[in-house]
Write a structure and sequence with these properties.
127 residues, mainly beta, 7-stranded mixed sheet, 0% helix
Length: 127
């Protein structure tokens, strides 16, 4: 069982930055692709960023490319999402997720390929 816990959300002004963290205790965390998703009110959950189990490959949704950076520290069982140049449209609940399969070479970006989820952390971008 993989239990994920997000932290680091909050209220920030447009143009500001936040760093989200996701703690994933468990023996198999380091073997799973990790992803960040978000869900705004009235909208479907959408993929934001993903990182291969080895940490050597990443994938981003187009609207966050160049602004967000996903990283992981397998020794600390933690994945991060550094968010810069935040915009009001980034406002959402952000979820951390872990893939079902181990040692994936590709980075899935649909929710059905991730089976372990955190409870979410609210990010609000507003002046």
């Amino acid at each position: 069982q993989v239990q994920l816990t997000e932290s680091g959300g909050g209220l920030v002004q447009p143009g500001g930055s936040l760093r989200l963290s996701c703690a994933a205790p468990g023996r198999t965390y380091s073997r799973r692709t990790m992803g960040w998703f978000r869900q705004a009110p009235g909208k479907e959950r959408e993929f934001v960023a993903g990182i291969r189990w080895s940490g050597d490959s990443t994938y981003y949704e187009d609207s966050v490319k160049g602004r967000f950076t996903i990283s992981r520290d397998n020794a600390e069982n933690t994945v991060y999402l550094q968010m810069n140049s935040l915009k009001p449209e980034d406002t959402a609940v952000y979820y951390c997720a872990a893939s079902h399969a181990l040692f994936l070479t590709n980075i899935p970006h649909t929710a059905r390929e991730f089976v372990y989820w955190g409870q979410g952390t609210q990010v609000t971008v507003s002046s």
